[in-house]
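Bumping with the actual sequence this time:
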Amino acid sequence: MRTACLFLFAVASACLAQSDQPDPKPLVEQALRAVGGKDKLLRQFRIKETFHFGANPEPDAGKKRSVRDSILSQPDRWWINKKERGPDPAKDDARAWSLDLLVDEKSRFELIPDLVDEGRICVGLRVSGSVNPAMSLYFDRDTMLLRRLDWRNDFYRFSEWKELDGLRYASRTVIFKVKTGKPWFFHDIDSLERLAQLPSGLSPPNSPK
């Protein structure tokens, strides 16, 4: 009898603790509204990108900027020159900056402590279930636009917001190493286009490159 009572007490305590947790849904809804609303999110789209590796905003001597044309279909397809890139963490990165993770039925959300990033106060949201390991997304408290993503051993900073038919999106991403705080990857979206349907000739998932 005592064991059963202790078990019921533990269950009740766990339920009470969960009920005391702040509801993350309002934050998710605010973030979606800030970019134009759920209906404006990207599904199938083409991006023309410029990027380079290194610690400086401009390529180091002897290095060139790389340019590529990518086609993405959320949640898990990404072609470069019509070749599917297969399993790649970059696909999850794209789901984060496009906020596709916020509308995935498998996503589980948890509010996390605020973060000050370059003087800007950001509210935190941890996303799990649809991505592994979990991601920590930080939204500018004033604009509710995604400012920073902490994931794996890196953190990403988003800036230079542009607009496409009612959708706001960050056209620049800089990736930093958490341990050093130094940047190592610079990425710019030069153009963004929605696609009503995918072009023909794209390779199937996981095909050899």
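The tokens above came from a reply further down the thread. Residues 22-194 form a domain with the outer membrane lipoprotein receptor (LolB), chain A fold (CATH 2.50.20.10).
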